[in-house]
């Protein structure tokens, strides 16, 4: 089994009762809303990663305002040629504030759209678990920076 580690930085950006999300396009073509953000480049600081990724996916310039926490996820999934990947994702989640730019969609990336969504409507969106984790971190501000996801029904 091949071990894979992915370290990424994500933004929780809430303004006027709305949350900024990006729509991720999965390998099978399905689309799910997610927090704007993504993988760190080698040697990149996660603070700089979240600024770069939000800009790429949404068009906005952001300033990280607070480190909300770190979330770790483990998954196993099939790879090519019948192998299995043992995936470990480490997600660094920041609260961010818009400092410039304007909303636009990413071209030739992993997302195809970015949009603001009313906080009370987020739970009805087709979304990845990371959105719920980020919202819990933002609302609860866990002192230890750890948010365990709740199971959806």
TrEMBL record:
GO MF, any single term: hydrolase activity
Entry keyword annotation includes Signal: no
Origin: domain of life: Bacteria
Protein name per its UniProtKB record: NUDIX hydrolase
Family per similarity comment: Belongs to the Nudix hydrolase family.
Key words of the record: Hydrolase
Residue ranges occupied by any Nudix hydrolase domain in the UniProt entry: 4-141
Needed cofactors: Mg(2+)
Gene3D superfamilies for the chain: Nucleoside Triphosphate Pyrophosphohydrolase
Organism: Streptomyces himalayensis subsp. aureolus
